[in-house]
Amino acid sequence: MNKSIKQNRCVRRLAGIAGLCILFSACSSTPQVEQQSEPEPPIEQPEPVSETPPEQTDNSFSQKNQAGFEQIEQARTAAIAAGAQELYPKEFDQADSRYEALKQKDTENTDLTEEIQDITDLYRSLELAAQAKKMQKEINEQQFPDIDAERLALADKALSELSELYRMQAAGAQTLAKAQEAYDTYASLLLTEYTRLLTDIRNKVLNKKKEADSIKSAVADKENYEQAMTVFTAADENAQSGKFQDAKSGYETAYELFCEVYDRVLAKRQAAAAAIERAKQKADEVEQYATEADLITPIPKEDVADRSVLEQEATE
Predict the structure, then answer these.
(1) Do residues 119 and 98 make contact, with C-beta atoms less than 8 angstroms apart?
(2) pLDDT, tens digit, for every residue of 250-306?
(3) What's the DSSP call for residue 55?
């Protein structure tokens, strides 16, 4: 029996040693790390394709040239409005001929920008030339006494040189520059001279208005006074907007109207004053007669009342 017990103990020890071996073997072994797979790169989404069809390039110059022709038409219309056809008939016909020749070219496949600009400048120069010639005529007609003769000569020279450029059929840019020179010089001369002239006339009108105001014309002759003021105000507006001839005419009319108002009211006042003077003289005469009569034949006291009545009637 003792032998069995010893055998059992021996078996238990061997089992325990075996268990310890298994335990140590498990602890000392390197654990296997589970390999994680790398993330896959994101799939690039293709950009959405626009449904708008690509612009089609048009090699044609048709639209560009058409816009240029419209520009020429505007310049031509302005030249006609300024009177170029009447004042420069030969030059205007030449411009039209060049324009018609241009329209016969291949506008679909040829860039006509430079030629379009040349003819546009030509028509614009004709517009300015017509206006300059009108101003030249106006200066000669007005005969401004204090005009700058040297600058006037320069303006006349520029206009003459412009005519020569037209005769030579010079480029539009050249004719436009020369026309602008003539126009600017004439315009400056007119502005200076009309400013001086209109200032003098306006002051003359204002002086006459003051005379009319001094005798209460706005009340005594209201309708005609207001008419004169209306004409005067319109002349001021024309002067400010550069309508110098209309302003001059308006000031001259306003002056005449104020003169008429003043003379009419003054005549009425003088007539009224004369009537008052006559009445006063008549009253003085009656008083004198009564005094003389009292000296000759004194009036009794009871007739004094009657005498007062008589004096009142004589005064009336």
Answers:
(1) yes
(2) 999 999 999 999 999 999 988 887 888 778 877 766 666 666 655 666 656 555 555
(3) P
Best CA proximity match to 127, nearest among 81, 184, 64, 182: 81
Amino acid at 283: A
Which candidate, 22, 44, 105, places its Cα nearest to that of 69? Answer: 105
In 3D, which of 205, 191, 81, 179 has the Cα closest to residue 142?
191
132 vs 187: CA distance, rounded Å: 8
Lowest mean pLDDT among 47-51, 70-74, 102-106, 122-126: 47-51
Task: Report the residue count for the chain.
Answer: 316
Q: Residue 111 carries which DSSP code?
A: -
What is the distance in angstroms between the CA of the first residue and the CA of the last residue of the chain? 190
User: Cα separation of 147 and 191, whole Å?
Assistant: 11
